[in-house]
Structure to design on (600 residues):
C-alpha cells in the first residue's frame, strides 16, 4: 500500500501540465504525509525494527515514480518532484521523533515545499536575461532572451502563430500557450490554454512496450484562419493509426470561440481536414524527422502544406516517394481547400521542406533540408519538379557524392534552387519581413536554422537570392514570427523565446572594431581585443603585426589606447592601422568598453 501510494503521489506531483494547477502539490504533500504516517503507525508495532525498511521502501517508491515519468515521456516539474522525495523521507521519520524532532521536520518540510513551488512557478514567469547587442549590415540589433516565460513542452518541434493582440505558442506535444500583447515580449505572461491536443500523445506512447523508442509524434505547425478574431485554427501534425500501426501527416481543424479576456478556447473537438497517403510503417528507410509539415495561406485563400519524403529516397532501389505522383503524398507541396479538404499537388521533388512563406507579392518560397549539404531555398512554381532525390547539391552522409547524382554539377533540367547551402545549415522556418521596425529589411526573407544557430537575412530579387547575411543567435531556431510592432520572435528547441529588435544605436565597438576584430561570421582580419587593457602590445599569438607596433614594447593602458585611437600614425609611425577621426566621446566609449570588459 505504501509503495502504491508513493508511486501515485510521485506521478501526480511530477505531472505539472498547467500553471493553474500549482496548488495541487501542496495538497498532495499534505495528503501524502498524513496517509504515510497513518500507514506506518498502524503497520509497525515495533517501529524501531522496521524503520530502515520503511525508509528504503519510500525512497525506492519515489524513484520508481520518477523513472515512470521519464519512461512515459511525460512532462514533469523537477523541483516539485525532488521536494516530494525529500518530504517522503521526512514523513517516515516523523512518527519516530520527539516533539523537537517533529517541529524540525515540519520546518524543513515547509521550507522545502515552499522553495519547490517558488522555483516551479518561475517557469511561467518571464525572466529577461541581460540584453545582447549585435551589429548587422543595416541595423544595430538588440537580442533579448526570455527564459521561463513559457512552460517547456514535452516534445521538440512546435510553432508560433500571431494575431494583432496575441501570440500563440503550440508545443511539439500539442500543448498551447497564449501570450497576450501587441508590442514585443516584455511584460507578457503565458496563459496555458485549455485547448485539446490534435493528437493523443499519451495514448500513442501507451501503444509501445518501450515508449522511449517510439518514433516522434509531434505538431509541426499551426496557423489561424484569416481575420482578427479567427473562428478556426489549423494544425499540421503527425498522426498514428493504432489499428494499422502506421503514420500519416495530418491537417486538423479546431473551431474557436473567444473569451472575455481575448484568448481562444475550443468550440468543439479537432476534425481531420487532410490525411497523407499511404499510411507509413516505421520500417525500412522511414525517418520520423523528414516530415515537412509547414502551413501557409495562398493569396486565393487555399491552404498550402509541405510534406517531406519521410526518408524514402529510393537509395534501396525502390521508387522515390518525392517523384511518385500516383497515390503518394510525400515529398511534395500541396494546395488544400480549407472548407472541403480537397487537395492537389503544387510541386514535387522535395526532401524535407520545413519552411514556407507566401510573400506579399504572391511568390511562394520554401526552405528545405538537403542530405549532407545541399539545403535549399526554393521559389515554388505550380507544376515544377525540384528534383529530389535524382539531383542535389549535397552528398550522402560519410561520402563525397550522392549515389543518384554522382556528378552533382547542376540540377539537369529540374528546377534549380534560388540558393543552396554547402555545407548544411539545417534550415527550418522562413518568413518575410513586412512590419515597420526593420524598414530597410522590408521584403527580405528571414531564415531560421537548427545546426548553425544562425538567423539568415536573404535579399530576393526576381527569381534569385542575391545575398545572405548571417546573424549568430546562439540557439537552435525552430520557428519565427513577426509581431505587429515589427519585432522578430524565434521559438527555440529548448523552450526559450528570443526577440530581435532594432537597437537605439550601434556601439562604438560595433562601428569601428567588431567587423575586423570580432566578426559574427568568418575569419578576423585583426587580432583579438579580448583582454586588451593590461596586455603587452603586439603579442597575440598567430598574428603578424607591423614592425612599428612590434617595436613599441610596453603594455596597453588607457592613456596609450587613447593616444592610439586619436592618431595611430602618430602613436606608431608606419603602423598599418587606419582609423577615421574619432571624437573625445567615441574614444571614451571605446576605452570604457575595453576597461569594463577586462576589469583588473
Amino acid at each position: 500500500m505504501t509503495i502504491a501510494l508513493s508511486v501515485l503521489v510521485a506521478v501526480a506531483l511530477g505531472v505539472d501540465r498547467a500553471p493553474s494547477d500549482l496548488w495541487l502539490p501542496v495538497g498532495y504533500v499534505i495528503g501524502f504525509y498524513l496517509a504515510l504516517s497513518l500507514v506506518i503507525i498502524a503497520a509497525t508495532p515495533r517501529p524501531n525494527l522496521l524503520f530502515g525498511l520503511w525508509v528504503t521502501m519510500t525512497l525506492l517508491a519515489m524513484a520508481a515514480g520518477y523513472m515512470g515519468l521519464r519512461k512515459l515521456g511525460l512532462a514533469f516539474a523537477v523541483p516539485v518532484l525532488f521536494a516530494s522525495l525529500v518530504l517522503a523521507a521526512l514523513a517516515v521519520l516523523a512518527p519516530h521523533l520527539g516533539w523537537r524532532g517533529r517541529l524540525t521536520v515540519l520546518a524543513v518540510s515547509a521550507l522545502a515545499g515552499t522553495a519547490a513551488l517558488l522555483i516551479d512557478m518561475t517557469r511561467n514567469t518571464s525572466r529577461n536575461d541581460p540584453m545582447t547587442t549585435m551589429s548587422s549590415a543595416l541595423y544595430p540589433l538588440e537580442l533579448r532572451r526570455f527564459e521561463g516565460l513559457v512552460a517547456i513542452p514535452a516534445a521538440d518541434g512546435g510553432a508560433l502563430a500571431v494575431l494583432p493582440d496575441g501570440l500563440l505558442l503550440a508545443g511539439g506535444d500539442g500543448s498551447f500557450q497564449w501570450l497576450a500583447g501587441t508590442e514585443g515580449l516584455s511584460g507578457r505572461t503565458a496563459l496555458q490554454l485549455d485547448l485539446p491536443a490534435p493528437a493523443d500523445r499519451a495514448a500513442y506512447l501507451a501503444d509501445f512496450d518501450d515508449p522511449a523508442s517510439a518514433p516522434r509524434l509531434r505538431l509541426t505547425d499551426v496557423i489561424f484562419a484569416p481575420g482578427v478574431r479567427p473562428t478556426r485554427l489549423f494544425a499540421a501534425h503527425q498522426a498514428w493509426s493504432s489499428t494499422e500501426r502506421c503514420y500519416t501527416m495530418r491537417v486538423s481543424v479546431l473551431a474557436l470561440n473567444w473569451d472575455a479576456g481575448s484568448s481562444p478556447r475550443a468550440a468543439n473537438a479537432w476534425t481531420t481536414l487532410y490525411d497523407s497517403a499511404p499510411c507509413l510503417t516505421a520500417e525500412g528507410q522511414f525517418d520520423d524527422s523528414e516530415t515537412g509539415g509547414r502551413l501557409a495561406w495562398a493569396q486565393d485563400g487555399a491552404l498550402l502544406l509541405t510534406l517531406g519524403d519521410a526518408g524514402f529516397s529510393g537509395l534501396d532501389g525502390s521508387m522515390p516517394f518525392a517523384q511518385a505522383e500516383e497515390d503518394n503524398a510525400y515529398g511534395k507541396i500541396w494546395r488544400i481547400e480549407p472548407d472541403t479538404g480537397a487537395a492537389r499537388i503544387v510541386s514535387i521533388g522535395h526532401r524535407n521542406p520545413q519552411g514556407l512563406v507566401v510573400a506579399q507579392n504572391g511568390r511562394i518560397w520554401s526552405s528545405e533540408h538537403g542530405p549532407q549539404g545541399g539545403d535549399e531555398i526554393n521559389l515554388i512554381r505550380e507544376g515544377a519538379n525540384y528534383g529530389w532525390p535524382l539531383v542535389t547539391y549535397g552528398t550522402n552522409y560519410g561520402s563525397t557524392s550522392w549515389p543518384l547524382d554522382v556528378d552533382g554539377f547542376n540540377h539537369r533540367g529540374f528546377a534549380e534552387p534560388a540558393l543552396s547551402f554547402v555545407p548544411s545549415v539545417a534550415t527550418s522556418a522562413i518568413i518575410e519581413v513586412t512590419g515597420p521596425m526593420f524598414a530597410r529589411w522590408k521584403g527580405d526573407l528571414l531564415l531560421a536554422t537548427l545546426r548553425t544557430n544562425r538567423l539568415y537575412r536573404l535579399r530576393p530579387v526576381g527569381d534569385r537570392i542575391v545575398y545572405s547575411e548571417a546573424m549568430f543567435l546562439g540557439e537552435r531556431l525552430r520557428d519565427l514570427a513577426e509581431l505587429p510592432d515589427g519585432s522578430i520572435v524565434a521559438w527555440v528547441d529548448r523552450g526559450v523565446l528570443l526577440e530581435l529588435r532594432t537597437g537605439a544605436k550601434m556601439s562604438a565597438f560595433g562601428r569601428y572594431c567588431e567587423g575586423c576584430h570580432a566578426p559574427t561570421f568568418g575569419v578576423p582580419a585583426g587580432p583579438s581585443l579580448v583582454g586588451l587593457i593590461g596586455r603587452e602590445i603586439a603579442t597575440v599569438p598567430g598574428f603578424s603585426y607591423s614592425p612599428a607596433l612590434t617595436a613599441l614594447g610596453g603594455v596597453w593602458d588607457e592613456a596609450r589606447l587613447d593616444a592610439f585611437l586619436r592618431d595611430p600614425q602618430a602613436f606608431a609611425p608606419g603602423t598599418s592601422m587606419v582609423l577615421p577621426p574619432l571624437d573625445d566621446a567615441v574614444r571614451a566609449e571605446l576605452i570604457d568598453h575595453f576597461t569594463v570588459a577586462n576589469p583588473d
